[in-house]
Amino acid sequence: MNKRKVTAIAVGIATVVGVGLTFFMDKEPEKYSQGWIEGLTPERWEAEREIVRQQFCSSGNNKPLAIRLQNLLRLFDKVKRDREWTGKEYGFPAPREHGWYLPND
């Protein structure tokens, strides 16, 4: 092959890949994915989590389903925790004269 054919093929492949990436990037996140949960409003988050919680409670003896739903509940909680703690710093109790665990009397 000569250089022109190789260049034309490379440009064609790059164009197809670019169009394909643009197509996939415009899609909404899949339902119950982390991106989808992060995009929910607090009210909607509460409603969707309640739906999953009720399904978890009624899963009965279906252990694989219960595990998946429990992991999903943990993901909901992680997203909420991340939202609430963004920009905040957790500080341990200040040490006192005889230890941080003692009352300040």
Offer a concise description of the structure:
The protein has 105 residues and is mainly α.
Largest sheet: none
Number of distinct helices: 4
Oligomer: single chain
Average predicted local confidence, pLDDT:
79
- Structural class, by secondary structure, is mainly alpha
Q: Give the radius of gyration.
A: 25 Å
Number of strands: 0
| Helix/strand order | HHHH
Shape verdict:
extended
What is the distance, rounded to the nearest whole angstrom, between the alpha carbons of the first and last residues? 87 Å
Describe the structure.
This protein is mainly alpha-helical. The chain contains four helices and no strands. It has helices spanning 3-25, 34-38, 42-57, 63-85. The longest helix has 23 residues, at 3-25.
Task: Annotate the secondary structure layout.
Blueprint: H1 3-25, H2 34-38, H3 42-57, H4 63-85
